[in-house]
Design goal:
The chain has about 450 residues and is an alpha/beta fold. The protein is built from ten helices and 24 strands. Helix 10 links the parallel strand 23 and strand 24. Helix 2 packs antiparallel against helix 3, helix 2 crosses helix 4 and helix 8 packs across helix 9. It is globular and about 60 Å long. About 45% of the residues are buried.
């Protein structure tokens, strides 16, 4: 199958699909947009990740399960019996889906999700395993602890990845599975495999992504790495093919946002989860340092997976998140609700949103600057930007929230921030004319002195 996808009528992405095991259409999975980035000028805007485009939160969970099912089929040669059920749920807006692990205990990998876009995808993939360990990379810089490995992502706006886990999670010979949303060159996977292998060598690695667009040059890069290190690298995806780019996008900056600038007001309130559920979540007390040099002493949450999780804890975490999600559902006042995760804090808010009832959509803030254009089938039709309340040196963006679309907005933060630092974000979100905004903190208090 071949098709051409235009980007702003200035650039054309020619796609040849070579593998499509579940017969999904490109429109099921992504839209195109222009990226304001000299390293890569276009973006496959995912319709299933819950990053740039709001989704039914359960679709994000199913996408991870579909990838896990595909992994078992291709790498292990095992039929799970879940394929048709998962596809039906995916194509029918999550109907009939139960988020239970279905992969046998004898398959026991170490699974790593890439920050920030694939933290939720990696976690959802891992959740399908009855026996596995998981962590996600992070852009956070922590004080008092050295990362066990670091590596770079060249085309990203935030290139440095760190992994803050106990060495025991990697000091073994188990298969490592790397989960990302999309591969164009696959160099990020090469970089992390080199970094891991230098300290914790093993025989088998698997790279998993929704989309795999690696051309022959980059496929050969993997084969050369296999030969050099004496390893096997499996590849798993839902859609695989080749892309060719023609034309040029000279976009460097966009001053006009896609959302109307007329001022609106909203009723703003906060919810502190650690106060209402003081013994349910596990604080991790490492201070972090921002790009501006500020030290924050507010705990992280172990349940995100940043510091490592084992599948044995999943049942208890699920029960806790269901309880919190049901509480949050009692705080709903609107029929059409948006839950907004922040940065790397994606999976927990997505899972909570899945417990909050009908009419709930989910997405997250992002670091990626995307050109805004109100045209059909374009991946970023509305957009706002603001300094990250947790680190003012980082710009954050939210896309595709049309004015008057939602009755209520829940914004989720892993760590509390002061109301002063929240104001720029809240003022931008108010442009969407959402009557009520609830800011949900998991650790710390919104009155914390920063």
């Amino acid at each position: 199958m071949k098709l051409t996808l235009p980007v702003l009528n200035q650039l054309a992405v020619d796609i040849e699909i070579t593998e499509n095991p579940y017969e999904l259409t490109p429109d099921d999975l992504f839209q195109m947009a222009a990226r304001i980035n000299k390293k890569r000028s276009f973006l496959f805007v995912s319709k299933v990740l819950g990053k740039h485009i709001p989704i039914n939160p359960t679709i994000g969970l199913i996408t991870g399960a579909l990838l896990a099912n595909r992994y078992i089929e291709t790498v292990k040669g095992i039929e799970t019996g879940c394929r048709e059920e998962l596809l039906f749920s995916f194509l029918n807006d999550s109907k009939g889906y139960t988020d239970d692990p279905f992969i046998d205990e004898r398959v026991n990998p170490v699974i790593i999700g890439f920050a920030e876009t694939a933290t939720a995808l990696g976690h959802a993939f891992y959740h399908s395993f009855k026996q596995a360990d998981f962590f996600h990379t992070t852009r956070e810089e922590l004080l008092g602890i050295d990362p066990v490995i670091t590596f770079e992502e060249e085309h990203s706006h935030a290139t440095s990845h760190r992994c803050y886990v106990d060495e025991s999670i990697l000091n073994n010979d188990r298969e490592i599975i790397l989960v990302d949303d999309e591969m164009t060159t696959g160099k990020t996977n090469v970089n992390i495999i080199r970094s891991i292998h230098a300290r914790f060598p093993r025989k088998i690695y698997t790279v998993v992504s929704i989309l795999d667009w690696r051309g022959e040059e980059h496929l050969q890069l993997y084969k050369k790495l296999e030969q050099e290190l004496g390893i096997i690298i499996h590849s798993v995806s839902l859609l695989k093919g080749n892309i060719q780019i023609s034309g040029n996008l000279g976009i460097e900056e966009q001053l006009t946002e896609g959302t109307e600038s007329r001022c609106h007001t909203a009723a703003v309130s906060t919810i502190n989860i650690n106060e209402r559920f003081p013994h349910e979540l596990t604080p991790i007390n490492y201070p972090s340092i921002s790009l501006e040099g500020a030290v924050r002493n507010i705990p992280f949450s172990a349940e995100t997976g940043r510091f490592g999780l084992s599948a044995g804890s999943n049942k208890q975490i699920d029960q806790t998140l269901e309880e919190i999600g049901q509480f949050l559902s009692t705080q709903r006042t609107g029929k059409k609700v948006l839950c907004l995760g922040t940065g790397e804090f994606m999976y927990v808010p997505m899972k909570l949103a899945s417990y909050m009832g009908q009419g709930v959509s989910y997405q997250s803030t992002t670091r990626s600057p995307i050109y805004i254009e109100k045209s059909e089938q374009y991946g970023a039709q509305y957009g706002i930007t603001f300094p990250n309340p947790e680190d003012g040196g980082i710009k954050q963006f939210v896309y595709n929230i049309p004015p008057n679309e939602y009755d209520q907005l829940f914004v989720f933060f892993e760590r509390a921030v002061s109301m002063d630092k929240l104001q720029p974000m809240l003022q931008e979100l108010m442009k969407a004319n959402i009557p009520e905004i609830k800011v949900v903190f998991f650790n710390g208090s919104c009155m914390v002195d920063e």
